[in-house]
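Is this the right way to post structure tokens for a design question? Let me know if I should format differently. Anyway, here goes:
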């Protein structure tokens, strides 16, 4: 090589190295000297990227389809001793919200931005996505996740369980992997990419590869993997913090769990779903997670009174609930394994836990009679009750591929609210428990916080705990402003006024807007339950039939008294505000379940 080219080659090499530092997130300006000769030059190496001094490990736990009134941690009759312990040694947030259905909640949670804003109006599945900015199911790089931010700031990042945000057409071993967990900041992933999977035969992925499941329950496998990731990291770098996103398939359908867990509840639900609601409300009042004068919302008209059921109906429906309860208690046990492991390696006190007990309210997917191997929302023919009764022993087993309870239990598990998953107009879909636990920082035990919050608030909350600010760029991509409002202010001051003033909700036609204690929502647009009652009628509805309701949540937290006729000016004010939020967040066009079932969307999809 000609000697006169050596300095130019050296400069090029150094420039490339500098650019790689910037790409890795350090973005430190080169401080060395590049001369014509080595003697005239001064080497420089960037400081290694480290998390802020004393930064905690961070664990986000997100359960699926649970319901506000399910876990004993929030007054329910299903035993969750681990969640109880975390809450009793930390803080319960009682006015916390999700997006109303799984993928939108997860997209909003991970990015700190509203779900339509990050293109997750519905799902990333082909049949539910549409070619509009708020609906294509592909989170943009400009809306970076909490994992990307923490990874860029000295954390190792792991995810196990359900991801649910990868477009179907990209979910093969050939990728592309931009919308896989690895493309969203997670260094390791073990779980499934879809919205649901069989718990014994999951469509399992590790990092970038589909793998064969080993036959054990998925919750056991993901817990083992989470512990392995943490153990390996702490062995290699004891002082480096980690971020773990622990998102089990539980308790989404199919409800599957070993009979050793479900049989623990034999006979415990004989009094039925009406009594369940009454007992749960009493527990909730005692715990302080609902107002002391709270009353139950009316029983949904689609739910029969328990006392009117015959003996076979009661026997069948009890078994569905026994299985569900065993499933939730088992999930709590698996979380306990993780907690105990962190304690055993002296990491529990320095770990921030944010535990969201449900990405939306309890599900209505089981229809009127429950489901075992058929989804009644999509299969309208046949006698579901007779089929289920004949197959009662399959409920919850590996052969119960779609096990889900009937809607009577759905409303019970959402106590004290009305309606259920997907009904974004109602608190029953969007009001979810949040537990914050961090022994090194939070000394309060069993605290209650009533500030209004939403899943988009947990990204900035976490950054405040860690001591970081949301970055302007991630890997040279300019970032959108984070829309969440940190809840950190409320940790030290339980009386602090809420800092979240406005929040929209919109899922497949049902929609609402919250603003400073008031809430307006669309009560009726064809929902999945309408398809159970009269498919043809449901498909003939238009948005002209939509009926707005109005509630003062400050005085009526579970939406018992509609004030739309009494305060028409307030209703119009909120409807206008919804329209403003819709335009700002890419909610339009509104796509309803009728549009999905009629196949109106995704007609022009190209591979």
């Amino acid at each position: 090589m000609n000697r006169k080219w050596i300095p130019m080659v050296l400069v090029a090499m150094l420039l490339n190295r500098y650019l790689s530092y910037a790409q890795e997130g350090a973005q430190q300006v080169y401080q060395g000297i590049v001369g014509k000769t080595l003697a005239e030059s001064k080497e420089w190496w960037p400081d290694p990227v480290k998390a802020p001094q004393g930064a905690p490990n961070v664990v986000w736990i997100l359960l699926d389809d649970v319901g506000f009134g399910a876990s004993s941690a929030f007054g329910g009759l299903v035993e969750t001793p681990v969640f109880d312990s975390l809450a009793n040694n930390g803080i319960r947030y009682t006015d916390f919200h999700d997006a109303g259905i799984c993928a939108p909640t997860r997209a909003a949670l991970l990015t700190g931005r509203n779900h339509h804003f990050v293109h997750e109006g519905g799902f990333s599945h082909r049949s539910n996505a549409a070619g509009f900015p708020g609906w294509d199911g592909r989170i943009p790089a400009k809306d970076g996740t909490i994992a990307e931010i923490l990874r860029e700031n000295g954390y190792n990042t792991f995810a196990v369980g359900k991801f649910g945000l990868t477009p179907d057409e990209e979910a093969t071993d050939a990728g592309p992997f931009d919308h896989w967990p690895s493309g969203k900041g997670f260094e390791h992933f073990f779980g499934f990419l879809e919205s649901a999977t069989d718990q014994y035969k999951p469509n399992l992925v590790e990092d970038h590869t589909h793998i064969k499941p080993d036959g054990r329950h998925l919750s056991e496998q993901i817990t083992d993997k989470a512990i392995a990731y943490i153990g390996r990291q702490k062995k290699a770098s004891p002082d480096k913090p980690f971020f773990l996103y622990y998102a089990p398939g539980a308790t989404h359908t199919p409800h599957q769990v070993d009979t050793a867990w479900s049989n623990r509840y034999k006979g415990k639900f004989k009094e039925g779903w009406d009594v369940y609601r009454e007992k749960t409300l009493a527990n909730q009042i005692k715990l302080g997670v609902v107002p002391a004068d709270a009353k139950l919302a009316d029983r949904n008209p689609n739910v029969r009174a328990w006392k009117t059921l015959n003996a076979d109906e009661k026997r069948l429906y009890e078994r569905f609930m026994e299985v569900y309860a065993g499933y939730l208690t088992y999930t709590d046990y698996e979380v306990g394994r993780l907690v105990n492991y962190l304690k055993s390696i002296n990491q529990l006190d320095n770990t921030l836990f944010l535990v969201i007990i449900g990405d939306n309210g309890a599900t209505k997917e089981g229809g009127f009679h429950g489901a075992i191997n058929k989804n009644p929302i999509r299969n309208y023919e046949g006698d579901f009750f007779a089929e289920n009764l004949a197959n009662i022993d399959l409920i919850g087993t590996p052969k119960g591929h779609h096990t889900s309870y009937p809607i009577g239990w759905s409303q019970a598990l959402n106590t004290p609210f009305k309606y259920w998953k997907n009904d974004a107009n109602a608190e029953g879909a969007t009001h979810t428990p949040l537990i914050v636990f961090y022994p090194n920082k939070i000394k309060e035990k069993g605290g209650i916080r009533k500030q209004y919050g939403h899943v988009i608030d947990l990204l900035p909350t976490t950054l405040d705990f860690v001591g970081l600010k949301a970055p302007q760029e991630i890997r040279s991509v300019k970032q959108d402003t984070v829309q969440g409002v940190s809840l950190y202010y409320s940790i030290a001051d339980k009386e602090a006024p809420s800092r979240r003033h406005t929040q929209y909700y919109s899922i497949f036609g049902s929609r609402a807007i919250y603003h400073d204690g008031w809430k307006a929502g669309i009560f009726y647009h064809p929902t999945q339950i309408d398809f159970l009652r009269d498919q043809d009628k449901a498909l003939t509805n238009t948005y002209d039939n939509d009926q707005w309701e109005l509630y003062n949540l400050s005085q009526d937290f579970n939406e018992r008294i509609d004030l739309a006729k009494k305060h028409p000016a307030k209703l119009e004010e909120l409807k206008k505000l919804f329209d403003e939020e819709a335009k700002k967040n890419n909610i339009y066009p509104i796509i309803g379940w009728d549009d999905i079932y009629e196949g109106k969307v995704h007609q022009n999809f190209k591979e």
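Format looks fine. Someone answered above. Worth noting: The longest strand covers residues 156-162. Confidence is low (pLDDT under 50) at residues 1-26, 535-541, 603-607.
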